[in-house]
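Encode chain A's predicted structure.
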Amino acid sequence: MMELVFKKITKTLEYVLVVIFVLLVIDVLWQVFTRYFIGKSSSFTEEISRYLLIWLATLGTAYSRSYKGQMAIDFIFQKFSTHKQWVVNFIIEGSIILFAFFVMIVGGINLMFITLKLGQYSPSLHLPMGAVYSVVPISGVLILFFSIYHIRNYISDRSKFLSNNNETALK
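Encoded structure for chain A:
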């Protein structure tokens, strides 16, 4: 069941990222075109590109968690035994869960509601800034889900690891 949900969320996120990227490219090309041929660009295209880039980067970070695409220096990690690698992976995922929950979800929701309560709007598009910042808790939820998915896989790998060690010990 969780595998099916994982695949659906990942595929949906891929489509959303492609749409955002295409809109960003069209917006920037339009901005360059108007600046070159008309002599000035409108301020709303700059604002759109800024917000699309924020959403693209933040959701892209969540997407990279789906395949454990975080930056890592694994030179020392490769020197560990299989058991220690499993423990380190568990600690990494736990740390990511704590960060995603407290900073991105709780902090993002606070940021979103504060800006909505204060009535902050973007200068050109007149969008509520809370809507722009909503990508932070959304990405936090996605990162949290992907990390829980990876921990679930680590737990099932751990049982395979233990069964392999027990079979080796019996031989």
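Confidence is low (pLDDT under 50) at residues 166-171.
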